[in-house]
Amino acid sequence: MSPRNKIAAAAIIIIRNKKKREEKRSVWVRKWVLQREEKGLFTNLLKELQKEDDKSYKNFLRMSHEDYECLLKKVEPLVKRKDTHLRRAISASERLTLTLRFLATGDSYHSLSYLFRIPVTTIARIIPEVCGVIFKVMKADYLQTPTSEEEWYAIAKDFEEIWNFPNCIGALDGKHVVMKAPKNSGSLYFNYKGTFSIVLMALVDAKYKFFYVDAGCNGRISDGGVYANCSLSAAMENNTLNIPNPRPLPNESEPAPFVMVADDAFAMQSYLLKPFPYKNQPGFNRVFNYRLSRARRVVENAFGLISAKFRVLRKPIELPPEKVKSIVLAICALHNFLLSKPSSANLYAPLGTFDSEIAGSHIHGSWRNEGHPDATLYSLKTTYMNKNHTKTAKNIREQFQNYFVSQHGEIPWQYKNI
Protein backbone atom coordinates (compact mmCIF):
# COMPACT_ATOMS: atom_id res chain seq x y z
CA MET A 1 0.00 0.00 0.00
CA SER A 2 1.36 3.36 -1.04
CA PRO A 3 1.97 6.12 1.51
CA ARG A 4 -0.96 8.07 0.06
CA ASN A 5 -3.30 5.10 0.48
CA LYS A 6 -2.08 4.56 4.04
CA ILE A 7 -2.88 8.16 4.89
CA ALA A 8 -6.31 7.83 3.31
CA ALA A 9 -7.02 4.60 5.24
CA ALA A 10 -5.95 6.20 8.52
CA ALA A 11 -8.21 9.17 7.84
CA ILE A 12 -11.16 6.85 7.24
CA ILE A 13 -10.54 5.04 10.55
CA ILE A 14 -10.36 8.35 12.41
CA ILE A 15 -13.64 9.50 10.87
CA ARG A 16 -15.35 6.20 11.72
CA ASN A 17 -14.17 6.32 15.34
CA LYS A 18 -15.37 9.91 15.64
CA LYS A 19 -18.79 8.91 14.32
CA LYS A 20 -18.97 6.05 16.81
CA ARG A 21 -18.20 8.40 19.69
CA GLU A 22 -20.84 10.81 18.48
CA GLU A 23 -23.36 7.99 18.17
CA LYS A 24 -22.65 6.87 21.74
CA ARG A 25 -23.12 10.40 23.01
CA SER A 26 -26.27 11.03 21.01
CA VAL A 27 -28.37 9.96 24.03
CA TRP A 28 -26.94 11.20 27.32
CA VAL A 29 -30.00 10.10 29.35
CA ARG A 30 -32.86 8.00 28.01
CA LYS A 31 -36.28 9.63 28.01
CA TRP A 32 -37.86 7.09 30.37
CA VAL A 33 -35.08 7.79 32.89
CA LEU A 34 -35.73 11.54 32.67
CA GLN A 35 -39.31 10.88 33.81
CA ARG A 36 -38.16 9.44 37.12
CA GLU A 37 -39.50 12.31 39.22
CA GLU A 38 -42.96 12.20 37.60
CA LYS A 39 -43.46 8.48 37.03
CA GLY A 40 -40.79 6.68 39.05
CA LEU A 41 -41.53 3.98 41.58
CA PHE A 42 -40.23 6.09 44.46
CA THR A 43 -42.41 9.06 43.49
CA ASN A 44 -45.66 7.17 43.10
CA LEU A 45 -45.95 3.67 44.54
CA LEU A 46 -44.02 4.15 47.76
CA LYS A 47 -45.87 7.33 48.67
CA GLU A 48 -49.19 5.62 47.94
CA LEU A 49 -48.25 2.69 50.15
CA GLN A 50 -47.29 5.05 52.96
CA LYS A 51 -50.72 6.69 52.85
CA GLU A 52 -52.97 3.76 51.97
CA ASP A 53 -51.32 0.42 52.81
CA ASP A 54 -48.98 0.53 55.77
CA LYS A 55 -48.51 -3.25 55.83
CA SER A 56 -47.32 -3.35 52.22
CA TYR A 57 -45.03 -0.37 52.84
CA LYS A 58 -43.37 -2.26 55.67
CA ASN A 59 -43.01 -5.35 53.51
CA PHE A 60 -41.56 -3.31 50.66
CA LEU A 61 -38.70 -1.86 52.74
CA ARG A 62 -38.65 -4.32 55.68
CA MET A 63 -39.31 -1.45 58.08
CA SER A 64 -41.89 1.14 59.08
CA HIS A 65 -41.90 4.67 57.74
CA GLU A 66 -40.80 5.89 61.16
CA ASP A 67 -37.73 3.64 61.09
CA TYR A 68 -37.07 4.61 57.48
CA GLU A 69 -37.03 8.28 58.36
CA CYS A 70 -34.73 7.62 61.30
CA LEU A 71 -32.33 5.72 59.05
CA LEU A 72 -32.53 8.36 56.33
CA LYS A 73 -31.62 11.08 58.82
CA LYS A 74 -28.45 9.20 59.69
CA VAL A 75 -27.27 8.39 56.15
CA GLU A 76 -28.43 11.51 54.28
CA PRO A 77 -25.42 13.74 55.07
CA LEU A 78 -23.08 11.14 53.55
CA VAL A 79 -25.09 10.07 50.49
CA LYS A 80 -26.69 13.34 49.41
CA ARG A 81 -25.45 14.84 46.12
CA LYS A 82 -25.76 18.38 44.76
CA ASP A 83 -27.85 19.29 41.72
CA THR A 84 -26.03 20.56 38.63
CA HIS A 85 -27.09 22.95 35.91
CA LEU A 86 -27.62 19.91 33.65
CA ARG A 87 -29.85 17.76 35.85
CA ARG A 88 -31.15 17.20 39.36
CA ALA A 89 -29.23 14.75 41.52
CA ILE A 90 -30.79 11.49 42.67
CA SER A 91 -32.04 12.30 46.16
CA ALA A 92 -30.81 10.64 49.34
CA SER A 93 -34.30 9.18 49.83
CA GLU A 94 -34.22 7.53 46.42
CA ARG A 95 -30.72 6.17 47.04
CA LEU A 96 -31.71 4.67 50.39
CA THR A 97 -34.99 3.26 49.05
CA LEU A 98 -33.23 1.67 46.10
CA THR A 99 -30.66 0.06 48.40
CA LEU A 100 -33.23 -1.26 50.89
CA ARG A 101 -35.28 -2.74 48.06
CA PHE A 102 -32.19 -4.47 46.68
CA LEU A 103 -31.38 -5.93 50.10
CA ALA A 104 -34.99 -7.03 50.61
CA THR A 105 -35.34 -8.78 47.24
CA GLY A 106 -31.95 -9.36 45.66
CA ASP A 107 -33.42 -8.17 42.34
CA SER A 108 -30.93 -7.62 39.55
CA TYR A 109 -29.68 -4.13 38.81
CA HIS A 110 -31.50 -4.24 35.48
CA SER A 111 -34.85 -4.99 37.15
CA LEU A 112 -34.31 -2.20 39.65
CA SER A 113 -33.34 0.11 36.82
CA TYR A 114 -36.78 -0.22 35.23
CA LEU A 115 -38.58 0.09 38.56
CA PHE A 116 -36.72 3.16 39.77
CA ARG A 117 -35.88 4.70 36.37
CA ILE A 118 -32.21 4.88 37.29
CA PRO A 119 -29.47 3.68 34.89
CA VAL A 120 -27.77 0.38 35.74
CA THR A 121 -24.34 1.97 35.90
CA THR A 122 -25.61 4.49 38.44
CA ILE A 123 -27.28 1.77 40.53
CA ALA A 124 -23.98 -0.14 40.53
CA ARG A 125 -22.36 2.84 42.25
CA ILE A 126 -25.22 3.74 44.60
CA ILE A 127 -25.94 0.41 46.31
CA PRO A 128 -22.42 -0.48 47.54
CA GLU A 129 -21.87 3.13 48.59
CA VAL A 130 -25.09 3.34 50.61
CA CYS A 131 -24.44 -0.08 52.20
CA GLY A 132 -21.04 1.15 53.33
CA VAL A 133 -22.59 4.30 54.78
CA ILE A 134 -25.30 2.33 56.61
CA PHE A 135 -22.70 0.24 58.39
CA LYS A 136 -20.51 3.26 59.09
CA VAL A 137 -23.23 5.37 60.72
CA MET A 138 -25.01 2.52 62.53
CA LYS A 139 -22.19 0.43 63.99
CA ALA A 140 -21.39 2.78 66.89
CA ASP A 141 -24.96 2.70 68.21
CA TYR A 142 -26.18 -0.71 67.10
CA LEU A 143 -23.23 -3.01 66.46
CA GLN A 144 -20.54 -2.43 69.04
CA THR A 145 -18.49 -5.12 70.74
CA PRO A 146 -18.51 -4.70 74.55
CA THR A 147 -15.35 -3.37 76.11
CA SER A 148 -16.33 -3.10 79.78
CA GLU A 149 -17.04 -5.68 82.44
CA GLU A 150 -20.50 -4.20 83.03
CA GLU A 151 -21.48 -4.84 79.40
CA TRP A 152 -20.27 -8.43 79.54
CA TYR A 153 -22.12 -8.99 82.81
CA ALA A 154 -25.33 -7.77 81.17
CA ILE A 155 -24.95 -10.23 78.27
CA ALA A 156 -24.20 -13.09 80.68
CA LYS A 157 -27.25 -12.19 82.78
CA ASP A 158 -29.52 -12.45 79.73
CA PHE A 159 -28.12 -15.86 78.79
CA GLU A 160 -28.67 -17.10 82.32
CA GLU A 161 -32.22 -15.76 82.64
CA ILE A 162 -33.44 -16.57 79.13
CA TRP A 163 -31.46 -19.69 78.20
CA ASN A 164 -30.37 -21.08 81.61
CA PHE A 165 -26.71 -20.92 80.66
CA PRO A 166 -24.72 -18.90 83.24
CA ASN A 167 -21.39 -17.22 82.50
CA CYS A 168 -22.12 -17.23 78.77
CA ILE A 169 -21.00 -14.14 76.85
CA GLY A 170 -22.20 -15.02 73.36
CA ALA A 171 -23.04 -17.66 70.76
CA LEU A 172 -20.45 -17.91 67.99
CA ASP A 173 -20.98 -19.15 64.44
CA GLY A 174 -20.00 -18.46 60.86
CA LYS A 175 -21.65 -18.70 57.45
CA HIS A 176 -20.43 -18.80 53.88
CA VAL A 177 -22.12 -15.99 51.90
CA VAL A 178 -22.35 -17.28 48.33
CA MET A 179 -21.36 -15.01 45.46
CA LYS A 180 -20.51 -15.14 41.79
CA ALA A 181 -16.96 -16.29 41.08
CA PRO A 182 -14.74 -13.17 41.22
CA LYS A 183 -12.74 -12.42 38.10
CA ASN A 184 -9.18 -13.75 38.01
CA SER A 185 -9.49 -15.16 41.56
CA GLY A 186 -8.80 -18.79 40.69
CA SER A 187 -9.83 -21.02 43.60
CA LEU A 188 -9.26 -18.38 46.30
CA TYR A 189 -12.97 -18.08 47.14
CA PHE A 190 -13.89 -21.69 46.24
CA ASN A 191 -15.48 -23.41 49.28
CA TYR A 192 -16.14 -26.99 50.33
CA LYS A 193 -19.67 -26.83 48.85
CA GLY A 194 -18.28 -26.21 45.39
CA THR A 195 -19.39 -22.56 45.22
CA PHE A 196 -17.62 -19.24 45.78
CA SER A 197 -18.05 -17.30 49.00
CA ILE A 198 -16.80 -15.00 51.69
CA VAL A 199 -17.32 -15.89 55.34
CA LEU A 200 -19.41 -13.98 57.87
CA MET A 201 -18.28 -14.68 61.44
CA ALA A 202 -20.63 -13.44 64.16
CA LEU A 203 -21.09 -13.40 67.92
CA VAL A 204 -24.74 -13.07 69.02
CA ASP A 205 -26.25 -12.14 72.39
CA ALA A 206 -29.20 -13.80 74.13
CA LYS A 207 -31.68 -11.52 72.33
CA TYR A 208 -30.56 -12.42 68.78
CA LYS A 209 -28.46 -9.31 68.19
CA PHE A 210 -25.04 -9.35 66.58
CA PHE A 211 -22.43 -7.65 68.72
CA TYR A 212 -19.37 -8.77 66.80
CA VAL A 213 -19.18 -9.39 63.06
CA ASP A 214 -16.25 -10.08 60.77
CA ALA A 215 -16.84 -10.50 57.03
CA GLY A 216 -14.64 -10.92 54.01
CA CYS A 217 -12.47 -13.95 54.72
CA ASN A 218 -12.22 -15.98 51.50
CA GLY A 219 -14.25 -19.17 51.35
CA ARG A 220 -11.26 -21.37 50.56
CA ILE A 221 -9.64 -21.01 53.96
CA SER A 222 -10.27 -23.87 56.37
CA ASP A 223 -13.30 -23.20 58.51
CA GLY A 224 -11.31 -23.57 61.71
CA GLY A 225 -8.87 -21.05 60.29
CA VAL A 226 -11.60 -18.47 59.75
CA TYR A 227 -11.99 -17.91 63.48
CA ALA A 228 -8.25 -18.21 64.13
CA ASN A 229 -7.64 -15.33 61.69
CA CYS A 230 -10.41 -12.99 62.83
CA SER A 231 -9.87 -10.13 65.26
CA LEU A 232 -12.10 -11.68 67.93
CA SER A 233 -9.75 -14.64 68.32
CA ALA A 234 -6.77 -12.37 68.86
CA ALA A 235 -8.73 -10.20 71.31
CA MET A 236 -9.81 -13.22 73.35
CA GLU A 237 -6.32 -14.73 73.39
CA ASN A 238 -4.77 -11.42 74.45
CA ASN A 239 -7.62 -10.52 76.83
CA THR A 240 -8.09 -7.03 75.41
CA LEU A 241 -11.90 -6.93 75.73
CA ASN A 242 -12.04 -6.69 79.53
CA ILE A 243 -13.81 -10.02 79.95
CA PRO A 244 -14.61 -10.35 83.68
CA ASN A 245 -12.58 -12.69 85.83
CA PRO A 246 -14.03 -16.15 86.56
CA ARG A 247 -16.88 -16.30 89.04
CA PRO A 248 -18.78 -19.24 90.55
CA LEU A 249 -21.80 -20.61 88.74
CA PRO A 250 -25.07 -19.97 90.65
CA ASN A 251 -25.04 -21.65 94.10
CA GLU A 252 -21.57 -23.06 93.46
CA SER A 253 -18.25 -22.18 95.09
CA GLU A 254 -15.62 -22.97 92.46
CA PRO A 255 -14.99 -20.09 90.00
CA ALA A 256 -15.87 -20.75 86.35
CA PRO A 257 -14.71 -18.62 83.42
CA PHE A 258 -16.98 -16.63 81.13
CA VAL A 259 -17.36 -18.56 77.89
CA MET A 260 -18.71 -18.42 74.36
CA VAL A 261 -20.72 -21.37 72.98
CA ALA A 262 -20.08 -22.79 69.52
CA ASP A 263 -20.48 -25.95 67.42
CA ASP A 264 -18.06 -28.54 66.10
CA ALA A 265 -16.62 -26.25 63.44
CA PHE A 266 -14.52 -24.59 66.15
CA ALA A 267 -11.64 -25.74 68.29
CA MET A 268 -12.48 -25.80 71.98
CA GLN A 269 -10.68 -23.24 74.13
CA SER A 270 -10.79 -22.29 77.78
CA TYR A 271 -13.21 -19.50 76.78
CA LEU A 272 -15.04 -21.42 74.01
CA LEU A 273 -17.24 -24.45 74.69
CA LYS A 274 -18.30 -26.91 72.01
CA PRO A 275 -20.42 -30.08 72.26
CA PHE A 276 -19.18 -33.60 72.82
CA PRO A 277 -18.74 -35.10 69.33
CA TYR A 278 -20.44 -38.14 67.76
CA LYS A 279 -23.64 -39.89 68.73
CA ASN A 280 -24.26 -42.40 71.52
CA GLN A 281 -22.69 -40.21 74.19
CA PRO A 282 -23.31 -40.98 77.89
CA GLY A 283 -26.34 -39.32 79.43
CA PHE A 284 -24.50 -36.52 81.21
CA ASN A 285 -22.71 -35.62 77.96
CA ARG A 286 -26.03 -35.50 76.12
CA VAL A 287 -27.41 -33.16 78.79
CA PHE A 288 -24.46 -30.83 78.27
CA ASN A 289 -24.92 -30.96 74.49
CA TYR A 290 -28.62 -30.11 74.85
CA ARG A 291 -27.97 -27.17 77.16
CA LEU A 292 -25.22 -25.85 74.89
CA SER A 293 -27.32 -26.22 71.72
CA ARG A 294 -30.16 -24.44 73.49
CA ALA A 295 -27.93 -21.43 74.13
CA ARG A 296 -26.49 -21.64 70.60
CA ARG A 297 -29.98 -21.44 69.12
CA VAL A 298 -29.82 -17.63 69.20
CA VAL A 299 -27.12 -17.43 66.53
CA GLU A 300 -28.90 -19.93 64.28
CA ASN A 301 -32.07 -17.87 64.58
CA ALA A 302 -30.26 -14.61 63.89
CA PHE A 303 -28.77 -15.99 60.67
CA GLY A 304 -32.13 -17.49 59.75
CA LEU A 305 -33.94 -14.19 60.19
CA ILE A 306 -31.55 -12.07 58.12
CA SER A 307 -31.75 -14.69 55.38
CA ALA A 308 -35.56 -14.58 55.44
CA LYS A 309 -35.84 -10.79 55.57
CA PHE A 310 -32.97 -9.75 53.33
CA ARG A 311 -33.38 -12.07 50.40
CA VAL A 312 -30.31 -10.83 48.60
CA LEU A 313 -28.61 -13.48 50.77
CA ARG A 314 -30.70 -16.28 49.29
CA LYS A 315 -28.88 -16.51 45.98
CA PRO A 316 -25.34 -15.89 44.73
CA ILE A 317 -24.57 -12.17 44.91
CA GLU A 318 -23.20 -11.05 41.56
CA LEU A 319 -20.72 -8.53 42.92
CA PRO A 320 -17.00 -8.55 43.79
CA PRO A 321 -15.98 -9.62 47.32
CA GLU A 322 -15.48 -6.12 48.77
CA LYS A 323 -18.98 -5.07 47.72
CA VAL A 324 -20.47 -8.31 49.05
CA LYS A 325 -18.75 -7.54 52.35
CA SER A 326 -20.37 -4.07 52.45
CA ILE A 327 -23.79 -5.62 51.82
CA VAL A 328 -23.39 -8.24 54.55
CA LEU A 329 -22.19 -5.74 57.17
CA ALA A 330 -25.05 -3.35 56.32
CA ILE A 331 -27.57 -6.17 56.79
CA CYS A 332 -26.14 -7.03 60.22
CA ALA A 333 -26.38 -3.37 61.27
CA LEU A 334 -29.97 -3.10 59.98
CA HIS A 335 -30.90 -6.32 61.81
CA ASN A 336 -29.75 -4.85 65.13
CA PHE A 337 -31.34 -1.49 64.37
CA LEU A 338 -34.72 -3.12 63.72
CA LEU A 339 -34.51 -5.15 66.95
CA SER A 340 -33.47 -2.14 69.02
CA LYS A 341 -36.90 -0.93 70.14
CA PRO A 342 -40.18 -2.81 70.76
CA SER A 343 -42.18 -1.11 67.99
CA SER A 344 -39.57 -1.98 65.38
CA ALA A 345 -38.93 -5.47 66.73
CA ASN A 346 -42.65 -6.33 66.70
CA LEU A 347 -42.70 -5.56 63.00
CA TYR A 348 -39.37 -7.04 62.00
CA ALA A 349 -39.63 -10.13 64.21
CA PRO A 350 -43.22 -10.52 65.47
CA LEU A 351 -44.17 -13.08 68.10
CA GLY A 352 -43.43 -16.57 66.82
CA THR A 353 -40.57 -15.54 64.53
CA PHE A 354 -37.86 -17.17 66.64
CA ASP A 355 -37.69 -20.72 67.97
CA SER A 356 -39.33 -21.13 71.36
CA GLU A 357 -40.10 -23.71 74.03
CA ILE A 358 -43.35 -24.55 75.76
CA ALA A 359 -43.06 -26.93 78.71
CA GLY A 360 -39.73 -28.04 77.30
CA SER A 361 -41.08 -28.81 73.82
CA HIS A 362 -39.20 -27.13 70.98
CA ILE A 363 -41.32 -25.05 68.60
CA HIS A 364 -39.83 -23.88 65.33
CA GLY A 365 -39.92 -20.17 64.57
CA SER A 366 -41.74 -18.83 61.53
CA TRP A 367 -38.47 -17.85 59.84
CA ARG A 368 -37.98 -21.54 59.10
CA ASN A 369 -40.97 -21.42 56.76
CA GLU A 370 -38.74 -19.44 54.39
CA GLY A 371 -36.27 -22.32 54.20
CA HIS A 372 -33.24 -23.14 56.31
CA PRO A 373 -30.41 -20.59 56.02
CA ASP A 374 -27.96 -23.37 55.13
CA ALA A 375 -29.69 -23.52 51.75
CA THR A 376 -28.04 -20.19 50.94
CA LEU A 377 -25.79 -19.31 53.89
CA TYR A 378 -23.63 -22.40 54.24
CA SER A 379 -22.51 -23.41 57.72
CA LEU A 380 -18.85 -23.81 58.47
CA LYS A 381 -17.75 -27.36 57.83
CA THR A 382 -18.02 -29.61 60.87
CA THR A 383 -14.79 -31.33 61.77
CA TYR A 384 -13.91 -33.76 64.54
CA MET A 385 -10.21 -33.88 63.68
CA ASN A 386 -9.04 -31.53 66.42
CA LYS A 387 -9.08 -33.78 69.47
CA ASN A 388 -6.07 -32.22 71.15
CA HIS A 389 -8.01 -29.90 73.41
CA THR A 390 -6.06 -28.58 76.33
CA LYS A 391 -6.62 -30.17 79.70
CA THR A 392 -7.86 -26.81 80.97
CA ALA A 393 -10.53 -26.60 78.24
CA LYS A 394 -11.70 -30.16 78.97
CA ASN A 395 -11.90 -29.43 82.69
CA ILE A 396 -13.98 -26.30 82.09
CA ARG A 397 -16.43 -28.23 79.89
CA GLU A 398 -16.67 -30.90 82.57
CA GLN A 399 -17.34 -28.20 85.20
CA PHE A 400 -20.32 -26.89 83.21
CA GLN A 401 -21.46 -30.45 82.50
CA ASN A 402 -21.50 -31.30 86.21
CA TYR A 403 -23.38 -28.12 86.99
CA PHE A 404 -26.11 -28.86 84.44
CA VAL A 405 -26.92 -32.19 86.11
CA SER A 406 -26.68 -30.82 89.65
CA GLN A 407 -29.60 -29.88 91.86
CA HIS A 408 -29.01 -26.17 91.31
CA GLY A 409 -28.16 -26.29 87.61
CA GLU A 410 -30.59 -28.74 86.02
CA ILE A 411 -33.84 -27.70 84.34
CA PRO A 412 -36.88 -30.00 84.68
CA TRP A 413 -37.36 -30.89 81.01
CA GLN A 414 -33.74 -31.45 79.98
CA TYR A 415 -33.77 -35.24 80.40
CA LYS A 416 -36.65 -35.78 77.97
CA ASN A 417 -34.83 -33.73 75.32
CA ILE A 418 -31.58 -35.66 75.20
From TrEMBL:
Keywords: Hydrolase, Metal-binding, Nuclease, Nucleus. Transmembrane segments: none annotated. One of its GO terms (cellular component) is nucleus. One of its GO terms (molecular function) is metal ion binding. It is found in: Nucleus. Its cofactor is a divalent metal cation. Residues 172-336 form the DDE Tnp4 domain. Coiled coil: none annotated. InterPro entries: HARBI1-like, HARBI1_dom. Belongs to the HARBI1 family. This is Putative nuclease harbi1-like protein. It comes from Triatoma infestans (Assassin bug).
